Amino acid sequence: MWKCSHTDQQLQQKESCKHACNDRFKYTHVLNTVFVGPEKWAENFPLANGPRQSPINIVPKETQYDPSLKALKLKYDPSNAKGILNNGHSFQVDFVDDTDSSTLTGGPISGTYRLKQFHFHWGASDNRGSEHTVNGIKFACELHLVHWNTKYPSFGEAASQPDGLAVVGVFLKIGAANPRIQRVLDAFDAIKTKGKQASFSNFDPKTLLPGSLDYWTYEGSLTTPPLLESVTWIVLKEPISVSPLLLIIKNGLLFSGEGEPPCCMVDNYRPPQQLKGRQVFASFK
């Protein structure tokens, strides 16, 4: 079994496996000596240079407290969890979304948004991995819970609308072991390579949330191509903890498919983008 841990030999393997990544977009910076990291995404996806791109660097002293922002209401039905997938860029846990049994309401949004999936972004080392940063500080990992606006008939149609999606972002910091994440990690052997999927049922995403739901919010985009500018971002201020060992285990996933040269799934995050005049609001003083 391929393990993307941090021995010298495996680091060499990780370096060589970068050359195996040849999808339409990649996070790796070398492909047959050609740079193909996020800074090059605009060549295939011009919206990468759009006016409301994500992620961003959040500067708390420059955010604006908005007393009209409501408390977040997250109602998740554990029985809606249906599967876990290696999509070649991250892993995602998918949810049944044909009813309003798992929803997000309140906060900065109007109406009801259904949970579609959650996924993570992380780094090759513990000092990077989050997509959003706070005062330039990177966290080890970032969880995204993706919801779509039920005023539209489907997730696909919502994803192309300015108010179509709402994503709750949660930072993960290095600290105590987190048993709430272990169940997700235990499923990784079944989805080691791109395209692999497995059943994943009876899981409550609320167990991955911190005690405080204070948040920052702004109008942004998907952080992976096609980078559609359809996301109301809700970034929680309080991180949850994860042990370094769990992050190493997580680094065992591959960008590459079965039978391809192994390309370790690490550093799957987009750097912060320019605000371009947008205001970030806070639900707290």
TrEMBL record:
Described purpose of this protein according to its UniProt entry: Reversible hydration of carbon dioxide.
Protein name as annotated: Carbonic anhydrase
GO biological processes: carbon dioxide transport; regulation of pH
Organism: Mola mola
All copies of domain Alpha-carbonic anhydrase, residue ranges: 23-284
Domain of life: Eukaryota
GO molecular function terms attached to this record: carbonate dehydratase activity; zinc ion binding
Coiled-coil zones: none
EC number annotated for this UniProt entry: 4.2.1.1
Enzyme class: lyase
Lineage: Eukaryota, Metazoa, Chordata, Craniata, Vertebrata
Cofactor: Zn(2+)
Keywords linked to the UniProt accession: Lyase, Metal-binding, Zinc
Family of the protein in this entry: Belongs to the alpha-carbonic anhydrase family.
